[in-house]
Description:
The complex is a heterotrimer of chains A (about 400), B (about 140) and C (about 180).
Chain A (H helix, E strand, L loop, with lengths): L6 E9 L11 E7 L2 E8 L7 H5 L4 H9 L8 H14 L5 H30 L2 H22 L8 E2 L2 E2 L8 H24 L1 H7 L7 H6 L5 H4 L7 H4 L26 H25 L11 H9 L2 E10 L2 E10 L6 E5 L2 H5 L2 H5 L7 H7 L6 E9 L5 E2 L1 H16 L1
Parallel strand pairs in A: 1-10, 2-9
Antiparallel strand pairs in A: 1-9, 2-3, 4-5, 6-7, 7-8
Chain B lengths: L13 E6 L5 H10 L11 E2 L8 E5 L7 H10 L5 E5 L1 H4 L6 E2 L14 E3 L6 H21 L1
Parallel strand pairs in B: 1-2, 1-3, 3-4, 4-6
Helix pairs in contact in B: 1-4
Chain C lengths: L8 H12 L3 E11 L4 E10 L4 H11 L4 E9 L3 E10 L8 E10 L4 E3 L9 H11 L2 E3 L32 E2 L6
Parallel strand pairs in C: 2-5, 6-7
Antiparallel strand pairs in C: 1-2, 3-4, 4-5
Amino acid sequence: MSKKALSKTTYQIPIGPIHPALKEPVQFEFTIDGERIVDVDVSLGHVHRSIEWTGMHRNPIQVLYLAERICGICSYCHPMSFALAVERVAGIEVPERADYLRVIQGELERICSHVLWAGVAAHEIGFDSVLFFTWQIREEALDLTEYLTGNRVTKAITMIGGVRRDITPDMVPRVKKSLDFLKANFEKLRKIYLDDKTFKMRTQGCGVLTKENALKLCACGPTTRASGVKKDVRLDQPYFAFDNLDFDYVTPDVLTGEVNGDVYDRIIVRLLEVKQSIELIEQCLERMPEGPIVSEPKIPKLLATLKKVNGEGIGRMEAPRGEVIHYVKLTGQEFPYCWKVRAPTYNNILPWIPMLLGEQIADIPIVAASTDPCMSCTNRVAIVKDNNRSYLDKETLHKLSVEKTRRLMQ
Amino acid sequence: MVKSLNKSFKKALWVYHINSGSCNGCDIEIIAALCPRYDAERFGIKLVGSPRHADALLVTGPVTRQMVEKVKRAYEQMPDPKAVICVGNCGNTGDVFYESYNLVGPVDNVIPVDVHVIGCPPRPENIINGVAKAWMKLETLETKK
Amino acid sequence: MSEGARLTPEEIIKSFKDIFKTDIKDDRIETHKAGSKKTQFTHIWMCIDRSAFKDAVKHLMKLEKYPHLAVVSGYDMGETINLVYHFSIYFSERGKELSLNITVELPKSEPEIETITDLIPGALITEQEKQEMLGIKVKGIPKDKRAFVSDDFPKGMYPWRKDETGPGKMVRNLHEVKE
C-alpha cells in the first residue's frame, strides 16, 4: 500500500504545573493512526537563552548566579554542580559541616519538587482538589526554605568551597517541626495516590518504559528507576556527605514487589523519595559536626586563586529530575574557557517515544507529565494525521484526559 | 490600547499567561498565587486557556527569538480593553541575561506594557498586587469614558 | 549493569591501549574524595584519535553493556575543535561508578565525526546540538535538524566558536536604551 502524504495537525499538550494557561514551549510531532500514536518527534529550543555562551564571558562567581536561573524548580542543583566541577579542578577542599548543609538544602529542594509534581500529575488526571491539597503541603516546605535561606525559589546559597548560610542550633527545633508536619501528611499523600481506584485505573499499564529501553536511551532519575534500573548519582559516585548516610536505591519493588515501568511505578518512586529525603535531613541534623561553612570566605581571594587554575573537570549531581552534569575548562584566565550544562530533562525526552507508542491521545498529558519535564510545558505538538489540518489547543487535550477519567469512574 | 469600554470590571478579571522563555520560577509563583495560601481566586482572578477570553496578559521571561511571534499574536488576539503585566526581572530588564544572541530584548520592545512587577521571582503577594493595579488602571479608564 | 568482572581504572586504560596503541594520545586518572569517610572515586580522561573513536566506543560496550552517555561537550581551541564524550560505567552498586571522559580532536578544516546513535540511541539530541553550535558534521545522524537554535538564525554562524563565525553580530544588550 502506498504511503499517503500526511499533513500536520497541531495540538497543544499541557505538561507541568498547570492551571490552564501555564505554558512553556517545546514542540512535539506525533504521527497518529486513528486514535493510536505511531511516531513521535521532539524539537526543543524555545527557551534557548544562550546561557553557555554567556558563561564564557563572566567570572566563576557570576556564573553561579547565572546557573541558578537555568531552571526555577531545580535552581539549587545547577550552581552546586558547577561548584563541584570548579572545586575538583582547583583542588579546593570543602569543610565537613558544609557538606552536610549542602545535603540538607538539596533534599529539601527534592521534597518541594516532588510534591509540586504530584499536584501536577493529579491535575492532568482531572483531580483539581488534589492539586490544591498537595500545593498546600508544598507551601510548608517553602516556608522552611525561606526560613533557612531567605527566599522561596532562587536561593543563592551556593558558594564555591561551601555554602553561604548556616543552620545554627537554635534554628533546629523549627526545622524539626516542619519535618514532622511533612511526615504526618506523607501518609495522606500515599493513600490518595497509591490506594485510589481511579488513579490506579488511569496509570497502571500506561506509558510503559522497559528496562532495556531505559538503558539504551540513557534515561536518568526517577524515570529510569521506575523501570528497574538502579541508577542514582548519590549512591553510585557519592558527593557531599552522602557516603556517610544510610539509604538505598528506590525502585518500585521496594513497595509493591514488582517492576512494571508504567506511570504508577513512577508515582511510587517519587513518593518514596519524599519519605527518603525527610529521613536524610534528620540524619544530617544529627550527624553534622561543628566547623566553618566555607573554605575561603573572602571572595576576591577566591577569584584570584581561580584565575591561576588550569584544567578541566566535571561535576555530577542528582537533581529531583535526574542527573545534572556540568563540564568546566579553566585556562588561567578570568573567564572559563568552556562551560557545558546538561539538564536532566534532555535525556528524559527521548524515552517519550517508546512510552507513547500505541497509547491513546487522551493519555499524552499524564504520560508526558510522569517524566516530570523540567519545564512547565504547554508544548506545542504537531501531529501528523490524515490530511486534515486542525488545531487542538491545550484545553481540548486536557479535556480529553479528564473525560477519560470520568468514563473510567462510572 | 483602550478604545471604548462597555464591559464592567466590577466582577472578574480573567488573566492569560504566556511564557516567553523563562526559567519557570515566576510561573511557579503565579500558580502559587492561585493556590489556597494566597488565593487570588477569591478576588475573581482566574487563569483562562485562550487569549480571546482574557482581560489581562501575564508575560514572563525574556523574549526568545522563537517566541516573538507567539507573544505578539497572543496580544493581538486579546479583545479591548486589555492590560499587559510583565512579571519578573527577565521581562523587565533582562536580569542576568542582559547579553545574548537569541533574545529579542525586554518585553517592552515587543508589546506595550502597563504594569511591571519586579523580583526574581516576585513573591505571590507582589503578583496579586500587580494584577490589582492593572485592574484599577482599567477601571479608571472606564470611568473616564 | 556489567556482566563480567569489574576492571580497575588502570586495567581499563591498559585494555584500550592494547587495542588502539598509538591512537590514544593522552590519558590520566584522577581520584577525588568525597565526604568525611573520604570515599574515593575515579575519573578517567583519555584522548583518542577520531579514526579510532567509534571502535573505541564498541570496545567500551564490551566492558559495560549499556554505558551511560551523559552529554558531549565541545570547545574551540583555535586550530581544532575538541569534543569530550562523558560516559559512565559500572553503576548500580554503591560507590563503584567510574566516569570515563573521551576527548576527540577535529581539525577545523574538516570537522567531521561519525555518529554513535546506532550504538547508543540516546546520543541523538546532544549530537544535533554540537552540529549547530560548533559547525561540525556528524556523519550518519538519523535526524538532521536544529535542536536549540531557532530556524531563522543565520546559517554560517556557530555560537560557541571563538573565531569569525562566532555570534558577534547577533549579540544584543538588553539594557540598551533606545533613542
